[in-house]
Amino acid sequence: MDKTGIDISIIIPIKDEQDNIFRLGQEVTNALSSTDWTWECLWIDDGSQDDSLARLKELHQKDKRHKFVQLEQNYGQSAAMFVGFKQAKGEILVTLDGDGQNDPNDIPRLVKFLHKQGAHMVNGWRKNRRDSLVRKISSRIGNGFRNLITRDNIKDVGCSIRAFKRECVQDIFLFKGMHRFLPTLVRINGYTKILEIPVNHRPRQFGQSKYGISNRLWVGLMDTLAVLWMRLRKVNPKIKTCSLDQ
Question: Computed from CA positions of residues 17, 83, 182, 228, in that sequence, does the dihedral angle turn out positive or negative?
């Protein structure tokens, strides 16, 4: 257990997901009720224009383990996720999308697999994706290009549900699109045991997707080149001995 007394922090960035909050919140609660872990669920409201904030306040009133942070404006999913990393108190962090397509019932499996394998990070990969053909094609192209350039071999970088030790992301570099490169950035930071397991994927029931080819595929390809530069230039100095405490 972490010194804060919280084992698991679930981080959910949202924007305009008013119709998904109560359902997803209950699913998170139900999924964690089958464990003996202490937990919190951090909802990061990234500049929603609908009633998302009101729903989050109501959810928090009913169950204080569901907490929320309202950002001043819309900064993007990466920034919202980064804020969650900084605010989380758990020893293990879990991320998932706020659109309800990730299944919270996969959270215990991810965390238990991480502990069992002694891994730094466990990524989910959507074995049976419930997305449109356009999204599937753009994701496959982007995923293949990222793996080729970064020399990683991640089946599904775009899958948001993953579990990892909090130290993996404490010194991570924030930029727009960061969330698409989390496994690579964690590896760059020296945390190399990154595993994958298949997870459930569900069709979106409410709201509309915020992503398309124009704002996801092409920008992602450019971001890949920036991450390549970071991978080639990153230095992780390790101290052999010192006299600072003497």
Answer: positive
In the β-sheet with 8-14, what is the strand arrangement from edge to edge?
Answer: 66-70, 39-45, 8-14, 92-95, 162-165, 121-126, 194-199
Through-space distance between the first and last CA atoms of the chain, rounded to whole angstroms: 31
C-alpha–C-alpha distance, residues 182 and 178, integer Å:
6
Bridge partner list, 70: 45
Q: pLDDT, tens digit, for every residue of 100-141?
A: 999 999 999 999 999 999 999 999 988 776 555 555 555 665
Q: What are phi and psi of 163, to 5 degrees?
A: -125, 140
Tell me how long the chain is.
Answer: 246
